[in-house]
Amino acid sequence: MAIPVIDFSKINGEEREKTLSEIAKACEEWGFFQLVNHGIPLELLNKVKKLASDCYKTEREEAFKTSTPVKLLNELLEKNSGEKLENVDWEDVFTLLDHNQNEWPSNTSGLKETMVEYREEVRKLASKMMEVMDENLGLPKGYIKKAFNEGMEDGEETAFFGTKVSHYPPCPRPELVNGLRAHTDAGGVVLLFQDDEYDGLQVLKDGEWIDVQPTPNAIVINTGDQIEVLSNGRYKSAWHRVLAREEGNRRSIASFYNPSYKAAIGPAAEEGSEKKYPKFVFGDYMDVYANQKFMPKEPRFLAVKTL
């Protein structure tokens, strides 16, 4: 069993209906799929790969050696208790936002300019993907994007758009620690440019953990909790995790197109039909998620303050 791989270039051709159907099926049955021929230039992707790796080596690697997960694993090995580290991730991560560019890593030449360009391309792809979901769900064109951008004025987007640049360095005892603990994503649409050599990302499907196979230059799409709510449960957010590895420094660049913290999110179900989820403000949901990210999903929807 393998994650669906979909040729996105066919969305504008004679195979449009087939491609729409493939995406709908992947959203309904997996919550995860890979896009090839997605329109982001190959030259740009190669620059992102190289510069992200350069940045880790020059600006992040030394600090990771004295980080909390490394210290905790060393302590565990000294105790030789056979326990596993449950509440920590073997991950180095920094986040890129439009308004925090002065905090981006600054000692890797070309990184900032390249990531600005990459994020713009990914943002455009996110918009296209949301329009495909609109069409497949029978919603007006632009419905999901408008819901996420509540309060938008003069075309200025209010949705949260962040990029998480992660590395999962080699781990001496990968069976004792998680690369990233199992969770669903809180927000909307996630667009991941993952390592094309080292695996480790897995998605839960029918009770079985399935590898998200490295596919050169693909963009992995997964749907978050807010898409599950908007679709009234047709598109479930999928549980996923990252395994620690003994060899290889796995790279992962995930961009999140999430609602504005002030956006009101609820099922887009027709009047009179049963709504399986409450309506709430996304910021209130995030307050719940912050404490329950690695816990069962359903109680979050019950715990959030409803409108």
UniProtKB/TrEMBL annotation:
<feature type="domain" description="Fe2OG dioxygenase">
    <location>
        <begin position="155"/>
        <end position="259"/>
    </location>
</feature>
<keyword id="KW-0408">Iron</keyword>
<keyword id="KW-0266">Ethylene biosynthesis</keyword>
<protein>
    <recommendedName>
        <fullName>aminocyclopropanecarboxylate oxidase</fullName>
        <ecNumber>1.14.17.4</ecNumber>
    </recommendedName>
</protein>
<comment type="similarity">
    <text>Belongs to the iron/ascorbate-dependent oxidoreductase family.</text>
</comment>
<dbReference type="GO" id="GO:0009815">
    <property type="term" value="F:1-aminocyclopropane-1-carboxylate oxidase activity"/>
</dbReference>
<keyword id="KW-0560">Oxidoreductase</keyword>
<keyword id="KW-0847">Vitamin C</keyword>
<dbReference type="GO" id="GO:0009693">
    <property type="term" value="P:ethylene biosynthetic process"/>
</dbReference>
<keyword id="KW-0479">Metal-binding</keyword>
<dbReference type="GO" id="GO:0046872">
    <property type="term" value="F:metal ion binding"/>
</dbReference>
<dbReference type="GO" id="GO:0031418">
    <property type="term" value="F:L-ascorbic acid binding"/>
</dbReference>
<dbReference type="InterPro" id="IPR005123">
    <property type="entry name" value="Oxoglu/Fe-dep_dioxygenase_dom"/>
</dbReference>
<dbReference type="InterPro" id="IPR044861">
    <property type="entry name" value="IPNS-like_FE2OG_OXY"/>
</dbReference>
<comment type="pathway">
    <text>Alkene biosynthesis; ethylene biosynthesis via S-adenosyl-L-methionine; ethylene from S-adenosyl-L-methionine: step 2/2.</text>
</comment>
<dbReference type="InterPro" id="IPR050295">
    <property type="entry name" value="Plant_2OG-oxidoreductases"/>
</dbReference>
<dbReference type="InterPro" id="IPR027443">
    <property type="entry name" value="IPNS-like_sf"/>
</dbReference>
<dbReference type="InterPro" id="IPR026992">
    <property type="entry name" value="DIOX_N"/>
</dbReference>
<dbReference type="Pfam" id="PF03171">
    <property type="entry name" value="2OG-FeII_Oxy"/>
</dbReference>
<dbReference type="Pfam" id="PF14226">
    <property type="entry name" value="DIOX_N"/>
</dbReference>
